[in-house]
Specification:
6-stranded antiparallel beta barrel, about 5% helix, single chain, globular, Thrombin, subunit H, mainly beta, disordered N terminus
Length: about 375
Amino acid sequence: MVFGGCFELLSESILQSCLILFHDGACSVGQLTIFELQRPSFSIYDQDARPPHLCMETFTMIQLKKRISAIFFCLSLTPVVAQAEVANGGAREIVGGEVVSDLSSFEYKHTVRLLVKGVLNGEKVPDQIKGLKMSWRCSGALLSKTVVVSAAHCFPRSIGISDPNTGEMIRADMTELSAEVFFRTDTRADRPWGVKSKKIIVHEGFRDDWYSSVQNAWNPSESVHDLAVVKLAEDAPVEKEAVGLIEEKEAQMTAGEDLVLAGYGRDISDDQVAIPRLRRVVVPWRETLRNGSEWYVGQGDLVRAGRVDRPAGGCVGDSGGPVYVKRGQRVRLAGVIVRGPDEVNGGCRAAVTIVTALPSYNKWLTERMKELALP
């Protein structure tokens, strides 16, 4: 799996909207002139970019002969490297797992893929990129036949970009946010269009630039509230099912307990441009972060993140993906994939995945479900 991804320019032609990915984040392609945003030290995993950088904050714009050819907004679900002792780390798609092919499995029945779209706007945004349409990929899980839970950072209200004319860092609005939800194992099995979103609710406590207001973005003491729900315009297909939330009485986690991560991110063994495929991987629960509302899972080292042998965890495109846990014979939704280390700190090979712990948000989710049930 991979945490993170890229915004892709939506052009009038299918060829022009072709997504281009870079393996190492360095761009040197023909006559392309590249303008790049300053990159934070952690990754957020909800897109398709090979390099996992801070979600909504790694924005690469490529201009070809005075014409915008493509825009990449690389998201990686990785904690910020805010301390000197943090070594190498980063993440992309479900890593070290397997492709889900069993259509009777809970991973297939409950997990979905989201294509999120937005328009770049704002007073400070240069005219040549204002109104630019972009799209990016996330994962999610069905709470009902018409409600999907995912990560808040998949639906940014603003993003940080570099002005292509001055190099100045500016805050750009992301407007006209919408989503389409897909249900099959990969894009080849899906129809070209998904079920459209009717309403998107992002947790009111989430801020797109949350990392700038905390003392330790790697293991924050403040809650990030990286959680969102999407109301669908029509029911999910008959073979798809809602997953039950983990209940308070069964929410106690034990170090080493097995969790199942699922998502449509890219595996570290994939080619630079790969078809989104549903994957699963089993990882151990490790500990609760200082804020009490996020968990650290995986066999990697949170304090000294770096590449490990046989890594397992999330990667680019897995943002919002479900974290399942078994309670007896039942499967429960326990968390949502949100971030992980960047490439400097091991990337997807660091085997460190940070998830929003849903036991902390059961009340919020219950209230939103009631709200979305209203006509």
